[in-house]
Amino acid sequence: MTLPRRRVPARQPAPARFRSQAVPREWRADVDHVLISSRRLAWRIRQLSTEITRDFAGRDLMVVSLLNGTVLFLADLIRHLSLPLRLDFIGVSSYGTGTVAGELVFTKALRLDVKGRDVLLVDDILDTGRTMTRVLEVVRKLGPRRVRTCVLLDKPSRRIEPVQADYVGFTIPDLFVVGYGLDYAERFRNLPFVGVLKPERYASS
Ligand code: 5GP
Ligand code: MG
Questions:
Q1: Is 183 a catalytic site residue?
Q2: Ligand 2: distance of its center to the CA of 203 in Å?
Q3: What's the pLDDT tens digit per position in 55-81?
Q4: DSSP one-letter code for 167
Q5: Band of the pLDDT at 18, cuts 50, 70, 90?
Q6: By residue range, what is the domain housing residue 136?
Q7: Where residue 69 sits, what CATH number does that domain have?
Q8: Residue 193 and residue 37: Cα distance in Å, rounded?
Q9: Residue from 61, 122, 135 nearest 93 by CA
Q10: Atom 4 of ligand 1 has which residue's CA nearest to it?
């Protein structure tokens, strides 16, 4: 006779407000505090992958990711998507200075054909919504079957355009964040966590 297996409840990290993570020693000179630790990132992205896998089951998925801020997020997201998919990139850059966004410039067009396909558009952060709105216009003109959007971070308090993402990793307050793909003056993309720089770093980089 086989005994029924005991169900072990999944262990989940405590909500952020109950835990704070110290800034890793090597980043202490630049980073004021950790907003989202690498553990929380990994845990939440795993959940997003599970949702997306379920929602796109049986579809011909085309992941379209915006360069350059999505690199780390994208790699972690798609490695857990148990779906056949194609991957392509759109290059878009807002040539602003420091923490202020400027004019939006397309630096790389899609190479693969999205016509009739299910597209998942991936970006690092939804802020004013200008980038997502412009990119959605461009992608929709190419005739996909449907487009869904996925962002790691959402700053709804800064929204100018009426756009929302279908999948959101974390909703954050109005702070300029770096790390896990996000830069300040092209630096700090390689931090394994999302953090906030020391005020003097924003002023001098
Ligand atoms: P939006 O067009 O929605 O205003 O902004 C989207 C783009 O602005 C993002 O893809 C990102 O490149 C940049 N951005 C917005 N907020 C932040 C932030 O807090 N940190 C960083 N590093 N980039 C941001
Ligand atoms: Mg970006």
A1: no
A2: 21
A3: 999 998 999 999 999 999 999 999 999
A4: E
A5: very low
A6: 39-94+102-174
A7: 3.40.50.2020
A8: 5
A9: 135
A10: 128
